Write the structure tokens for this entry.
Amino acid sequence: MSVGRENLIPLLQEVQEHQGYLSEDAIRGLAATIGISENEIYGVATFYTQFRFRPPAEHTIHVCQGTACHVRGGHQLLYDFEERLKIKAGEMTADNKFGLERVACVGCCALAPVVLVDGMVRAGMKPKLINGLLTKLGHKSNGTGS
Amino acid sequence: MTTLAARYAAAEESWRDLEASRVPIFFVGTATCGRAAGAGETLERLRAEIQARGLDARVIETGCLGPCSLEPLVIVHKPDAPRLCFGNVGATEVVQILQRHVLGDDPCAEWALGTLGADGIARGGETAATLASGIGAFADHPMMRGQVRRVLRNCGLIDPANVDHYLARDGYRAFLRALKLGPEQVLDLVKRAGVRGRGGAGFPTWRKWETCRQTAADQRYLICNADEGDPGAFMNRSLIESDPHAVLEGMLIAAFTLGASKGYVYCRAEYPLALTRLKLAIGQMRDLGLLGEGIQGSSFSFDVEIKMGAGAFVCGEETALIASIEGRRGMPQPRPPFPAVSGLWGKPTIIQNVETLANLPLILLNGPVWYAELGTDGSKGTRSFALAGKVKRTGLIEVPLGTTLRQIVEEIGGGSSDGKPIKAVQTGGPSGGCISAALLDLPVDYESLMQAGSIMGSGGMIVLDEDTCAVDLAKYFVGFTQNESCGKCPPCRVGTRAMLYLLERIAGGEGETDDLRRLQDLALTVSRGSLCGLGQTAPNPVLTTLRYFHDEYRDHVEKKQCTAFVCRDLIRHRIDVERCPGCTACVKVCPAEAITGVRGDAHVIDEARCSQCGSCLSVCPPSYAAVYRVSGDLTRYEEVQTKKDKARPASAGVAVAEEAEA
């Protein structure tokens, strides 16, 4: 791939693929290589939801908010994940163990509602399965509701 | 030319070998839906079992056959027996099928969906023996009967990673025909077929092409729009995952007609498998001399590059997509100039939806008369839809345009999934509308949907039942478009935010009578004033719900009542002291610590603390059903949630999820 201005998005995607996120250093380096300002890169990168500017959590849970998931309770799932992890969508737990994200639609509508656990689709998700799922991933419940 | 010709002979022979194979073959559907439902485990177990038993059997991975609610799907070829398609085949079932059907005489009728002809769903293949076991033709399965699979003809039946399978089923013959005919003739065929864009607006394809061809330029571009961003739509994903060459052949035909030497596939990053399949297929085309300089001895040169989207819904809009390919923020431009005149890097550019492209080989192979046999006056051919939501049989379907919503929802989809009456059908995603169930007899074509206030859109079709609140749904869609608005033009940037504010106010019980008029006015302003399609169509979910479910809006405003019991601020959870034996299940789960009471005494919810999350309702044992909800004048006791869960067809995916419960 050439390092031309037109390839900025693929280059950012490659950096993120390798580093897990776009670090300040990486953006500085890219700006120098392509010959455009860091500002311009941030301008493009922040427009797209794919790009992260912090290292990802150990486990990332994407809760699908597509239409089929919504009518089958996807919003309730997101709410429940937020309650259990005590973070909001887009945040990470203090120990960097879990990140919670909303995703517009992963296209598995026929198996709604779905969540992605570290990129793997989990079909037919239900609120009552959340605790088990999180425990399996090493979440220590700190006495919610007791 | 010789290489491709030789390859055809070899491909056709290997396909015939497959049809007449003397060893058993398992075709396992491993598209994204299949994998999500557990096809990976099925595949792993099957391979292990074959190896452990030292069997001579083949396993072939295929794409998506369509009935997603029956995934994982496996087609079994057994020598001297008709091919059988099985549904809900988890790791346990696949071993049973191997043992009882392939090695024994029992066709496992409990999982069998039907027989298939060797060359696909069109031929039934049923025999007296299969009929005697109660297994009919798969083509007669209620989900398949009303369908006409043209674009999806190969999906689920061929190995998408093996180009020989595509070649054996007339792959690239349409393109070779186009090379012989010349661009003018191809354009004429496309015009006579009457094909319209399948991406949303339904613009006649030939007209766009003509404009592009008439613009003098030293370079033209073709872009395949695979940025299927509509929540609730997955037709393009399935098609690319299951039959990538059909789309790429369509690109060759379009590029040849347009005189474009460079093409791009702009595909969402959220579709990793589709991206993998595309990459592989493009490499195979190169090997076969179907890309590059002077393709197949002609003067036509063409190459394709994949551009991965980076997560922005607005990039489905033509000019925003172009900006994104150029490496800029994906923001739309005013039109004209249209991309067909001045697009990518200022050159004439044609952007076509995945499915439109996949229609082109069909037109070239079978002619425009055949193509236009199906459909209505203004909408020719077939259309694939992603059928999902509160419907019994979900999945990817293809029907002739003009098929009624009722046929799709009730016959193919099998009606409501939870036994509750269907309330509406949402078509076209965030740009479309909610069509009331009273209009189920509406034919699905471009004009009829437009008249009903919706659009065909990219083909998402979500069935809604009484548990869906019209206000909440409108709020959901406007929340989505507001979030995805690029911010360039004020009608969309400010207007969607203001609409969302009003909807939140109504759903939150703070609505005023005048809000409904305000919402309507605002929606029309956004629709008329926005720069691009995203903003212009963003109010459709609001306008259609206001049109068909006005009473429901009024109840929210005047009675502070949500009939569907969805809007949290209008619901109160209560415990029926007569029914509650005091089991403490709800006390333990309440995240707000709002429930008090000791074992043996009826519990009480402290309304001030309650966040209306519904946890108590979901854990209250069905035999007590003591938690009930109140909204306005309505009171609702929940009839056993678990009963509903059991009624849903169990899939391996759900089973996997159940394990996590332990």
Observations:
- The mean pLDDT of chain A is 89.
